[in-house]
Amino acid sequence: MSASGCLAVAAWFFWFVIGSGFLENPKPNQTPLDSAKPALLWIQGSIALLAGLFLLLVARRQFASNKTLILSMENEQQRYGRVSRFLHWTIAILFLALIPMGIFASIIPEGTEYRNAYYVVHKTLGVVVFALLLTRLVWNRISKRPELDPSLKPYERKLAHGVHIALYGMMIAIPVTGFVMTSFHGYPTFFFIWELPPLWAPSDTATIIWGTLHKYLLPYLLYIILGAHILGALKHHFVDKHSAAFKRMVG
């Protein structure tokens, strides 16, 4: 599922986004930082492709193995259970789709036929991710997370714990700031066919403040934190040879 999700995002980017021509002729920039959006989409599309191929390789090696992977619903001492794995990869794939989709929607020129449809899908995914994240937090209280690899140094344990907390904070803050920004802008929030009208009166000042958080500050912080999380996992597996660390979620 995770490999298919990453490859689907990559296919969407390399087939549809590039073919749209909006990377070369985007909507006029609102701030100087908007000029970086086409490059960000290229980076995210390429990462989705590489991640999909890597996860496909992991899945292929697991299928080729004679070992049968038997997982319980709840987490075990050394690895995550089915529920945690489903929530982890579903949230990860939806977030991987949510970010480039939001960036692409923001560069689609005014008057394009499907522009509003992208915002509806983007907002719907945001609500879904927020709900799944709350579910994951509740599940973490019900089923204790596996212990970190005992070979990790004390500073590595603190760093891993800090990155996890920061990731949860980002995944909560980004949907919330997007919802508040949308409301202050006078636009509704969508969840499939359900429409939630703005909760506050329109305010240009509040829209700018919350929009700065949602569109610029938080996403760039997320790139750093998410990059640290991924690089840390790869380092533990390939450099430190802590094979159990990676297998906690995929094996």
UniProtKB/TrEMBL annotation:
Predominant cellular place of this UniProt entry's protein: membrane
Keywords: Cell membrane, Electron transport, Heme, Iron, Membrane, Metal-binding, Transmembrane, Transmembrane helix, Transport
Protein name (database record): Cytochrome b561 bacterial/Ni-hydrogenase domain-containing protein
Organism this protein belongs to: Halopseudomonas salina
SUPFAM superfamilies tied to this protein: Transmembrane di-heme cytochromes
InterPro entries noted in UniProt: Cyt_b561_bac/Ni-Hgenase, Cytochrome_b561_oxidase, Di-haem_cyt_TM
A Pfam family assignment: Ni_hydr_CYTB
Family: Belongs to the cytochrome b561 family.
